[in-house]
Amino acid sequence: MISELIARAYRLGCALLSPPRCFYCYVGIPVEKVFCAACQASIQPVVSLQLSVTKKRSITVHSVGVYQEPLRSLIMAKHWSDPCAAKALGRLIAKQSKELNVTFDCVVPVPLHWTRYASRGFNQARTIADVVAKEHGVPVMDIIKRKRMTEYQAKLAGSARVENVADCFELADERFVGMLRSCNVLLVDDLVTTGATVISVAKVFKTLGVASITCLSVARAV
């Protein structure tokens, strides 16, 4: 009880000293919001995407909106190591997951290669996963890792994107085998383009006996 009161007092103090502002146009907003009403209304919805992982398994990709402003600026903040923006992205996905009534037992972030982690100081997908997991009271599981460095997907086109991420993910530790059996997994990332990365990650799960895999991203390129 005391720790909760201290946390509330801290949040109130922060709000008084630095009032929350829209992450895009910077006008004042309520503390629980990410964008002002006008910027929120400008987000273009995008239909869910069904991707085939194997002949017997597919994964549904839900996204908050189309990869354009105001989402684009918030996503691109990762390049100047802005964890506050990443946490805001997590709040957007957490809200989306509740609206869609997505059921999951754990959250798995799309992993970042260690060289990019060293450059940015954090993995945006992992920060997003932390926020979503906390909202739903489930664990974050870093069970996937990148085996090799890849080019930025946004710089590539067509089949080159598939080749770029093909077989570049693997189980982080063999001890995870069997741990997720019959679990519903939520895979999270900030941006989905062709879906090649999502498919490549999802293929690692095919031997783990999971019940289902759903992907939530902030934006999707269309």
Written account of the structure:
By secondary structure, the protein is an alpha/beta fold. The protein is 36% helix and 18% strand. It is built from 8 helices and 7 strands; from the N terminus they run ααββααβααβαββαβ. A hairpin with a 5-residue loop joins strand 1 (49-52) and strand 2 (58-66). Helix 4 (83-100) crosses helix 6.
Q: Which helices and strands occur, and which strands form pairs?
A:
Layout: H1 2-17, H2 37-41, E1 49-52, E2 58-66, H3 71-76, H4 83-100, E3 106-109, H5 114-120, H6 124-136, E4 144-146, H7 159-165, E5 169-171, E6 184-192, H8 196-204, E7 212-220
Parallel strand pairs: 2-7, 3-6, 6-7
Antiparallel strand pairs: 1-2, 4-5
Q: What shape does the CA trace take?
A: globular
Q: Using the CA coordinates, give the radius of gyration.
A: 18 Å
> What's the architecture of the largest domain, going by CATH?
3-Layer(aba) Sandwich
Please tally the helical runs, counting DSSP H or I stretches of 4 or more residues. 8
Side by side, the strands of the main sheet go 1-2-7-6-3
Number of domains: 2
Order of helices and strands: HHEEHHEHHEHEEHE
Query: Could you tell me the strand content as a percent range?
Result: 15-25%
Number of strands: 7
**In which range does the helix fraction lie?**
25-40%
The name CATH uses for the topology of the largest domain is Rossmann fold
What average pLDDT do the residues reach?
83
Please write the CATH class name of the largest domain: Alpha Beta
Amino-to-carboxy terminus distance: 47 Å
Unreliable residue runs: none
Broad structural category: alpha/beta
Sheet with the most strands?
5 strands, mixed
